[in-house]
Design goal:
Elements: E1 23-27, H1 31-45, E2 48-52, H2 55-65, E3 69-73, H3 81-91, E4 97-101, H4 106-115, E5 119-122, H5 126-141, H6 145-149, E6 156-163, H7 170-184, H8 189-211, H9 216-221, H10 223-233, E7 244-251, E8 254-260, H11 283-294, E9 297-300, E10 306-312
Parallel strand pairs: 1-2, 1-3, 3-4, 4-5
Antiparallel strand pairs: 6-7, 7-8, 8-10, 9-10
Helix pairs in contact: 1-5, 2-3, 4-11, 7-8, 8-11
Amino acid sequence: MALSVFTEKPSHAGSPDRAKGRSVLIVDDSPVDRRIAGGVMQKATGLDVLYAGDGEEALVIIERERPSLVVSDLLMPGLDGLMLVQEVRRLFPQIPVILMTAHGSEEVAMQALRAGAANYVPKRSLARDLVSTIRQILAVASTGRKRQRLLGSVLGWSSHFQLENDPDLIDPMIELLQEDLARMELCDETARMRVGIALQEVLTNALYHGNLEVSSQLRQNDERLFHAEVQRRRSQEPYRDRTIHVRVQLDRHSATYIVSDEGPGFDTSRLDRPVEAEELLCMGGRGLLLIRAFMDEVTYNAKGNEVTLVKHGVATS
């Protein structure tokens, strides 16, 4: 991992020139790790980067600055990453938190996600994965909050979408589905964001690995080669004519999403076993864990080309 030259600015003084919500907060008791994450973060987002050395300091800065995103180390003295996630979700539910983990395991990752983290990134793959993770979270979190305030009188909602193999359709699809969730008042903003992340994982999997049959291993080796192969297959038979079906059923009690692709499917028996620690370093392994953690029910058809996700409602008032 290359260490970018980056000067850490003090975060205690207010910055009148910086608009609230246009910054990212890095929380880590290690100055070196803070600078590494800050350098990656600034390159990825173009937002101002704030710093805190522990969870207590982070809460003070969040109260003052209202950053767009918080990236925190998991293990810190005092208020650690898990406790910080819980406090941010309680006090600032609109601000997502990504946890950085030094030692990955499914148990630790699930604990972080269930505490309210939007995602996690192992420190050993920080340079590779933090950028794409940040972009994913910011894209999902930035959906029209003002529009959501106008929604809320519908008692039930059913829809069926047929999507072509175009990655540009995924984000607006998720935004639309999140707006439907807001209409039903099923869950708070944090939960809607987490449903959006789970759907994003499912839809990208249906597109890239289902319809286009591009191996996730290629992405691990070289993301440029992965996307080049995606573009090539989008214009080739039999891949180009395949579509993704998204069926949605919403009411005041639950949201059900059925996503199916027209690919050959996969062996679903591997989904019954725990995710290994090494798999947590891979985008696909983390995606499966996110889906399990963020949705209440996850089932696959026998062929492995259709997944049903269920989120049960939680009162928001």
